[in-house]
Amino acid sequence: MSRLRVFAFLTLATAVLAISGCHSGGRRSAVGGEPALSGLDAEDKAYLDAPAARQETVVDRHPLFAKPREYWENSGDNRIVKAAAATFVGVPVGFVGEVKQIFVGAPPTVVTAPTTHVTP
User: Fold this and answer.
1) Does residue 36 lie within any of the structural domains?
2) What Å distances lie between residue 97 and 12, 23, 37, 91, 104, CA to CA?
3) What is the pLDDT of residues 49-100, one digit of tens each?
4) Alpha-carbon span 90 to 80, nearest angstrom
């Protein structure tokens, strides 16, 4: 009987730990990166607003996930080179960044001012 109780306790503890992981608060939209329709100008023509800024996700908060993606995006057009860079360079760099973030804390977020392009 005691083995059954120990097994039930361990199963319950494992389930609780698995469920209470890191969850994201946002939801994914089907359309991303498209500019929003802002309205009509003086000539009743529709104009588009600048695309919305990319929202921060779980991947952005954790270097273990963000660094391989950065190496994948910045390694050229060859898929083999991209995969090798993301796997063999990005994962170790992300692991070191994650450990650093545990001890030092998250790096401050960089806020950039939106740029406006004026066409004559």
Assistant:
1) no
2) 32, 20, 39, 10, 10
3) 555 566 777 777 788 888 888 898 898 888 898 899 999 999 999 889 888 8
4) 14
Residue with the bigger pLDDT between 113 and 26: it is 113
Q: Which residues pair with 40 in a beta bridge?
A: 46
Range of the domain at 72: 58-108
Amino acid letter, residue 107:
P
Tell me how many domains the chain contains.
1
Phi, psi dihedral angles at 69 (to 5 degrees): -65, -40
- Residue 103 within a domain: yes
Cβ proximity of 85 and 73 under 8 Å:
no
